[in-house]
Design goal:
2 helices, mainly alpha, 54 residues, single chain
Length: 54
């Protein structure tokens, strides 16, 4: 099981590096979308907590 996790991790790292090297602009767009998603989720949690306190 540990061996499978290592192989999966290496495969993900290789894929990320391949994506960055072959298409840096696309990789930057994907990172931006990811950060926007995290920011939106945090905003939603903040709004929920604010309404919960009221």
């Amino acid at each position: 099981m540990v061996q499978a996790k290592k192989i999966a991790l290496y495969a993900i790292v290789v894929f990320v590096l391949y994506t960055i090297i072959t298409s840096p602009a696309r990789a930057a767009d994907l990172v931006q979308v990811g950060f926007e998603g995290v920011s939106s989720a945090a905003q939603g949690v903040g709004d929920f907590m604010s309404e919960l306190v009221k």
